[in-house]
Amino acid sequence: MINVQRLTSLAFSVYDGRSADDSKLTPMMKQFATKSVPSLLEFMSYVFSFHGILCGPFCFYNDYISFINGNNYQLRDTTKNSNESINGKLAPSPNRAVLKKVVACVMYGSVSMLAMHHFQHAYMFDPSFRDFNFLYKMYFIVACTSLSRHKYYFAWSLSELVNMNAGLGFNGYDGFGRSKWDLIANFDFYEVETSTSLKSLLDNWNKKTMSWLRYVVYERTGSTLAVFILSAFWHGFYGGYYLAFLGAGFFIHASRLVRRNVRPLFLTTKGKIFLYDAITFVGTRLLIAYLTFPFVMLEFWAALDIYRQLYFWMHIIGGILILIFTLKPMLRIRKKAL
Fold first, then answer.
1. Average pLDDT of 322-327?
2. Of 94, 110, 198, 332, whose CA is between 20 and 30 Å from 224?
3. How far, in Å, are 74, 164, 237, 268 from residue 263 at the CA level?
């Protein structure tokens, strides 16, 4: 999976680098364009780098080759307030960032081992699951999917600290002159778990894959649906993937319409802003659980049966909201015409 990302992104980087008209390239295309075709050694190094061959995280060729050549520190020197010399003998140290990732790995791994067995997704396949009421089913699905995320947090944190320890991941300096090592950060735990919108959550989940999808698909087609279709295909051929990713496209569209039409009504006072944030926080927790349990279950018909047991309630609400906010402007235009 990682090498699919590397090979396709490199192909587009070379293609963009050979473009005769730079004006047709987006800023992201220009950023990652490669002017020359990599040598065989550079290509093999990028594809089979030992510290990222198993679970990544993905990084673009330009970022990787600048790390290999040793000029990634100079390219990303964004402040002169740093106590660490990038032009002298000392290079920014990843020790602090690595230590944080080690602690995070222990935490995520502990949650995975100690809590996940209480909410195994296999229980949703059990016929007895049908006997529970609607509220308990939603509670179980929220708990199951929330805990399932921690195994990804663990794997991604482990892969990030391995790469950072090798020197890959430096991303300039913060306002206090401290080195940042988030170039290959794959997620933002706080943003994922506290987000108040589906888009914000997805933007901070598997971030490097989202960057790849944006670069190879969205920047060239402008289609969110194409992004989710490719994402499902890239994950594999389990039907649950397609239920989850096609559903994501549907609910992203619905949430954008709601945010555009409803959010301005709550921006008048601090109390209303807090109320809006509270409602959207809870709604996002329910939505991401409802959306991703097919991804966890994998099986198409089993996941569809769970949706039936839940009466497709969020699909129905989402469809109604899309219908309302799509027809609303049309009705206004017709009313003015009359």
1. 91
2. 332
3. 43, 40, 38, 10
Q: What is the dihedral of CA 104, 140, 252, 276, to 10 degrees?
A: -80
Give the residue, 315 or 90, on which the prediction is more confident: 315
- Distance CA(245)–CA(227), nearest Å, equals 9
Given a contact cutoff of 8 angstroms between Cβ atoms, the answer to whether 173 and 164 are in contact is no
- Answer for the pair 10, 46: CB distance below 8 angstroms, yes or no: yes
326, amino acid identity: T
Active-site annotation, residues: 206, 235
**Residue 34 in this model has a pLDDT that exceeds 90:** yes
Q: What is the pTM of this model?
A: 0.89
pLDDT at 82 over 90: no
Cβ(32)–Cβ(60) below 8 Å:
yes
Please give the full DSSP string across 179-198, using - where no structure is assigned.
Answer: B---TT----HHHHHH-SSH
Helix axes 300-309, 270-297, angle to 10 degrees: 140
Q: What is the CA radius of gyration of the chain?
A: 23
Positive or negative, the CA dihedral 258, 260, 265, 268 is positive
